[in-house]
Amino acid sequence: MNARSISDNKKHIVFTLMLLLVATTSFSQEKAKPAVESFESGSSLASYNKVNSNLSLSTDHHKYGKSALQWEWKGKSSFGTSNFKILTHKESPLKYGNHFPASPTLIMSLYNEVPQDGKITISYEKNGKPEVWFDLALSFKGWRHIWVPFYEMQGNKPKKGAAVDYDYFKISTTAKSGKLYFDDIIFSQFQDDRHQYPDLLVPFIKKDQIEGEDHWMPLASNYERIRNLEKTPISTADKMDLQKFEKLMDDDLRIDKKYKVYMNTLNDLFQKLDLNDNGKTVTGPPLTFKEDQEYFDQKQQGPNRFNDIQDLGKVLKKLASFYDRTDALQKQEIEKMFLSGTKYFLDQGWQAGSSGGTRHHIGYNVREITEAFYIMRGTLKKEGLLNEVGASLHWLFNLGIVLDDEKKFHVNIDYLNTQSYYHLMLIFLMEDQEKQVTLLNAYSNYISTTLAQQNEEWGFKIDGTSWHHNGHYPAYGIGAFQTVPKVIRTLSGTKFRIQQKGHENFKKAFLTTRMYSQLYDWGFANAGRHPLEDNGIASLKNQYLLMALSGNPEGTSKIDKEVAAAYLRLWGKEDALNTALFTNLNGIESEKLSGYHTLPYGATAIQRNNNWAAIIKGYSKYVWASEIYVDENRYGRYPANGTIQLLNDKGEKGSGFQQEGWDWNRYPGGTIIYLPLAELESEMPLIMFRSVETFAGATELDGNGIFGMILNESKGSNADGPETKVGYPGKLKAKKSVFSFGDKLICIGTNISSIDGKNPTQTNLFQTFLKDTKDPIYTSSETITKFPFKTELSQNSKSGSWLIDPYGNGYHILSNTPVQIKKENQHSYENRYSVRTGNINPKAKGVKETEGNYATAWIDHGLAPTDASYQYVIYPFQEANNLQKFGSRIKEDKSYSILRADNMAHIVLDNKTATTGYVIFEADKNLEKGVLKEVSDPSLIMVRQDNPSNLTISAVQPDLNFPEYETGKYRNYSTAVKLTITLKGKWTTSITDTVLAVDNAADVTTIVVNCKDGLPSKFNLVKK
């Protein structure tokens, strides 16, 4: 082959390669259709067909990027494209993956400069045939952002959750002429079905859903109630009350005088919003909410620049807060910036009647902007914007709900936290005082009614627990406790005051916070998805004071003495002024909080003695174990496995509990399967595990109490989400009890089993952080100061087996079960980091792994035990001078006797009070110990023998007996159950609401007791 042939051959090869490259590139370009169209270049218009239309790019109004599509038309017109991609479920930004149902959804923004007559139709076609469509009226002004699921459209609509496959997107109209702008069209992405919201533009979304089922959803009916509100004639006294309320709220929002005005700083903050006021409109980056739920493509849309609604609120709040502290020129400057921000807020579609696609959990994000508008209400009124801004927030906050039928009122802690106080503010974001008084009357009734409710899905239960996410959840309750006292205090002493039942029920829940907290910390057991994150009531100092100064619920005293006494115990030492007010002027002393307290709706018991508290926690068919979220509490399987947290007056950290290095297997008191953390982490993105067992509860008598639970991890339900049948593979089971008599806790476990032959089943005694590696562990064999160190503590025939942790808590091991002890440096994971997926919550601030020095001790039951057990006694927080004497003390302690510990019952006698505690797991069996012979149902009973002729009984049948409306789904309130108690001998008692029947005709006495809410039923008996 000659050189020319070789050269020609090379050219042919190059040409062929070029053809292949062009073909490949063309094929690639054909495949690379956009999932979102942002109209950033003229080339995008080439993909659109048009009829009687003019399509162009405009920079006058836009969202992401620098331009939007401007559509002008005359007569019957349309434009459309086949150049788009439909996103799969996997490609869609779904926080919870498959956990919550999601459906294909159209997302888009459109802008109208002036309201127009007529409508447009948005449709999707397949093979030239229209498949689904919906209409939008053009009577709006400004931006509108919509999320429309395909299953909510007209035509051949798909089933909810089903994937879609269309090949043409079209927008058409029969209106005579007009102009609209479109931007950031996401042609189809899967969206969480809970979150697409209707509004006045797309009212057909969720039209078949029960109205108000989603408490965040703005409702047209609520908005119409405000618009159609009839005026109420007002008196001089009413006007004085209005002024009083405004002043109190103004005072509440006024910032401390120490904060100085720095105009340069305020200007810089405002400039960062990047707004442009052209005299007609105020443009700027998209004003977004939940933007992370929308697909974003930087190649299509440019840099991801936006202003979040909460960030805008913070800027406007800063401007508003300093307004009254400035001179005349500075006031003008602040007014100009504030009004530009307000007009931008409205132009971006945050107007009455607009949901912006979704506004779920909106209350958390619009607090600052609401406060800003309230502070600047005078300026807004002067500029003619007050009613429009007020209407936008009346819509957003569903203020009209207070005017609804009282039968439809339902308490919700999210509402109380994020909206209740703001509803009061919003009443003043309108010019008409007569309407304000009408709304105030309705508002007072609404708050009074909902606060009083106990048998609702959420809210404040009869035992004082705060229910949210289908369980007792102090972390959510804290928001309500921070907010509602301001409402009660503001309205107190007027005809608008919160009525007695609502005030009483809220006060009970409010004061219960200090019952399950020590001193301020409520500990890990009820922390929800926030374990070891400084959970507590320290932030409620001012709220306790407000509740005290609001007067009692009856309205007969200007100071609530019970709340004031609690305030003095918690904060009195640091507040001389209010201590003098309460004690010197009103004779109120600091409370003494001790004894035993039960929270059946939380499967929790609290033993309090002097300066410590023991928080005992279980779970059941109705009370979940913990809340494990997609990016929080990832290793939180065990905090309610019969755990016992001992807290001194220094709280969690002062008692040895902190997250750094914490072994998530080692919750004290818990019976667990010890797993590698990667296996301990849940595979599910969200689980709030409830077992199938109804037995978890407690009862109390004269400051003592007993707790019991049947632990069963093998099967159960999820309190949140679609999965109703869930369970853990190890099938861990146990019967556990804790008897609290005086200053000790007697702990018993029987029938402990699992099928896990790889990982050991264990019962934890303690896990405490070491402030110093030399901190000692005292044992019956030796004093351990070495570090690191590991040993096994066996029974000592002379003094028995015992140990004292580094915080002075003594443990007397009664059973022949060797105890494992360690002092070592522990490595762990931050609870908000997933070792399975590598995902991390931003709140973790990049921390994935943690470490710390700890002392731990546990009882090892071995691999796959079938009938293991334990018995031990805890003596919390021994005085330093008693530590060396602990062995002698427990040897001489004859104050209690364990009478029975098997699969049927755990029975303990307290010799000091002649009280026998019965934790009875099996019904209709002869208990053989004491005066109690048998019971008709598993129960917890305390019997005190006052003398040979008198008994006092405290009984609980712990089955909360929630109504079940779907498999694994419950109405969160207890219904009554009956318990029949059989006593040896002839006894009599009065018939009451508690005691329904007594039969002592034979040699035994049967008593039928009415049990409800898991609360103790108490009665006295006399020997017949």
Please state the overall shape, judged from the principal axes of the Cα atoms: globular
Extract low-pLDDT stretches.
1-29
Beta-strand residue percentage: 25-35%
Please give the largest β-sheet. 10 strands, antiparallel
Total helix count? 21
The helical percent reads 10-25%
Care to count the β-strands? 50
What oligomeric state do these chains adopt? Answer: single chain
- Structural class of the secondary structure composition? alpha+beta
Distance between the termini: 126 Å
**What Rg is obtained from the alpha carbons, in whole angstroms?**
33 Å
Mean pLDDT across residues: 95
Task: Describe the protein.
With 1024 residues, the chain is α+β, with helices and mostly antiparallel strands. It is built from 21 helices and 50 strands. Strands 1, 2, 3, 4, 5, 6, 7, 8, 9 and 10 form a ten-stranded antiparallel sheet that branches. α6 (309-323) runs antiparallel to α7, α13 (433-452) crosses α15 and α14 runs parallel beside α16. The longest helix is centred in the N-terminal third of the chain and has 29 residues, at 3-31. The model is unreliable at 1-29 (pLDDT under 50).
Structural features:
50 strands; 24% helix; 21 helices; disordered N terminus; single chain; ten-stranded antiparallel sheet; 1024 residues; alpha+beta; nine-stranded antiparallel sheet; 29% strand; globular
Structure, briefly:
With 1024 residues, the protein is of the alpha+beta class. The chain is built from 21 helices and 50 strands.
List the helices and strands and how they pair.
Elements: H1 3-31, E1 36-37, E2 48-58, E3 68-81, E4 102-112, E5 119-126, E6 129-137, E7 142-149, E8 154-155, E9 168-173, E10 177-192, H2 220-227, H3 236-253, H4 263-271, E11 276-277, E12 282-283, E13 287-288, H5 298-301, E14 307-308, H6 309-323, H7 328-347, H8 367-375, H9 377-382, H10 386-396, H11 413-418, H12 420-426, H13 433-452, E15 459-460, E16 466-468, E17 471-472, H14 474-491, H15 500-515, H16 541-549, H17 561-571, H18 576-585, E18 595-599, E19 604-609, E20 612-617, E21 643-647, H19 651-654, E22 671-673, H20 677-680, E23 689-691, E24 696-701, E25 704-712, E26 716-718, E27 733-741, E28 744-753, E29 760-769, E30 777-779, E31 783-784, E32 789-793, E33 801-804, E34 810-813, E35 819-829, E36 849-863, E37 868-875, H21 886-892, E38 896-901, E39 905-910, E40 915-920, E41 932-935, E42 939-947, E43 950-956, E44 964-966, E45 969-970, E46 977-984, E47 987-988, E48 995-999, E49 1004-1011, E50 1017-1023
Parallel strand pairs: 13-14
Antiparallel strand pairs: 1-10, 2-3, 3-9, 3-10, 4-7, 4-10, 5-6, 5-9, 6-8, 11-12, 15-16, 16-17, 18-19, 19-20, 20-21, 22-29, 23-26, 24-25, 25-27, 27-28, 28-37, 29-36, 30-31, 30-33, 32-35, 33-34, 34-37, 35-36, 38-39, 39-40, 40-42, 41-46, 42-43, 43-50, 44-45, 46-49, 47-50, 48-49
